[in-house]
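Below is a filled-in request sheet from our internal design queue. Each sheet records the structural input a requester submitted and the sequence that came back. We keep these sheets so that new team members can see what a complete request looks like end to end.

REQUESTER: design group, bay 2
PRIORITY: normal
MODE: inverse folding
CHAIN LENGTH: 276
BACKBONE (tokenized):
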């Protein structure tokens, strides 16, 4: 890592102040829960491939064509509101708001706060407040990279029967069958209208990663696949099968409209459980 970026280090993890991006969290088994690519560029103003990037106020490309992919906050330096630790755990809280640079890309007032508590579990709380004078819709995602032993062997439970949009099939709208989600190649699936807890069952690492959410109605499952991963400069070729993104979000059909002075609160809890 370069000296250009600032980090908050806790007994069980690490947070980068750029983008309030959680980079590491170790579960009770003392293994990393989150994946961070060895080829990531740890440079100011550059996105980091891995951890939990915060995406706001749009997911993907800017629909107005003015801003960068995934919004205005993930390359931005956040203010540290609180940082506390003890021998076994720790808590950080960071905040960012609109300014002259964000207004060039998205002309609205906002205050975004994110806190992370790391103990035997990772508890993330986030809030978006409309500090402006106009009502606006926004999208939000905790773009969570889960470290796995072999992505082709994992099973993702909790999305059975959920409405799904498959963006690799022309935004085909379908419903997930009554079976867990599997990764058999490149995947970009948005599951809408679900607040269900999702569990990543990993037989190679012998654990289950549980992601419970509140105030979030989308779950996104993304993986580049082996071929696309090979073309990504910030993902080492040998790492393509060591990660999967399972994102807790509010995107597309589930975007939130926020009136002036209103606030929307969200929470995600990540737990490491033994396999059953």
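RETURNED SEQUENCE:
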């Amino acid at each position: 890592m370069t000296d250009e970026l600032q980090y908050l280090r806790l007994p069980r993890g690490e947070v980068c102040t750029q983008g309030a991006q959680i980079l590491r969290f170790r579960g009770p088994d003392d293994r990393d829960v989150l994946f961070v690519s060895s080829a990531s560029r740890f440079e100011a103003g550059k996105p980091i491939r891995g951890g939990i990037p915060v995406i706001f106020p749009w997911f993907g490309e800017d629909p107005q064509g003015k801003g960068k992919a995934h919004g205005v906050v993930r390359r931005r330096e956040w203010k540290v509101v609180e940082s506390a630790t003890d021998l076994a755990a720790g808590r950080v809280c960071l905040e960012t708001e609109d300014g002259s640079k964000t207004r060039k890309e998205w002309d609205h007032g906002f205050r975004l706060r994110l806190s992370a508590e790391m103990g035997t579990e990772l508890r993330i709380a986030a809030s978006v407040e409309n500090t402006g004078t106009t009502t606006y819709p926004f999208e939000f995602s905790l773009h969570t990279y889960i470290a796995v032993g072999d992505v082709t062997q994992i099973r993702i439970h909790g999305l059975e029967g959920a409405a799904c949009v498959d963006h690799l099939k022309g935004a085909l709208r379908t419903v997930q069958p009554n079976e867990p989600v599997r990764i058999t190649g490149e995947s970009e699936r948005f599951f809408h209208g679900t607040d269900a807890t999702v569990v990543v069952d990993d037989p190679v690492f012998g654990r289950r990663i549980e992601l419970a959410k509140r105030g979030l109605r989308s779950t996104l499952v993304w993986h580049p696949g082996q071929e696309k991963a090979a073309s990504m400069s910030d993902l080492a070729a040998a790492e393509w099968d060591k990660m999967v993104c399972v994102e807790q979000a509010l995107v597309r059909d589930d975007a939130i409209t926020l009136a002036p002075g209103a606030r929307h609160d969200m929470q995600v809890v990540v737990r490491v459980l033994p396999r059953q």
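SHEET NOTES:
- The chain is about 5% helix and 40% strand.
- The domain at 7-274 is CATH 2.70.98.10 (Beta-galactosidase; Chain A, domain 5).
FILED BY: M.R.
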